[in-house]
Amino acid sequence: MEVLMILMLTIVVPLWIIFHYVTKWKQMKGISAEDELSLSDLRRSSDKLEERLRTMERILDSEVPDWRSRTDDL
Question: What InterPro entries does the database record attribute to this sequence (predicted)?
């Protein structure tokens, strides 16, 4: 009985723990649906902000042609 207990503690239990965490690691490898949705929302926000910035630059280019080359007078 003691030999069986020693075998369980030295071989079976460590292998079980290792396989358990390997399985968990493989499950976490991909992106979850919630993460994918968040990334999609962030991408849309980024696209909107980029378009706003382009619009602002076009307005400034037409109203103040040399705004890009000016230095700040603080």
Answer: Phageshock_PspB
Q: CA 46 → CA 40, 43, 53, distances in Å?
A: 10, 5, 11
Tokens 């396989």 belong to residue: 19
Distances (CA, A) of 55 to 15, 19, 44, 52: 60, 55, 17, 5
Separation between Cα atoms, residue 45 and residue 39, nearest integer Å:
10
pTM attached to this predicted model:
0.54
Residue 64 pLDDT greater than 50, yes or no = yes
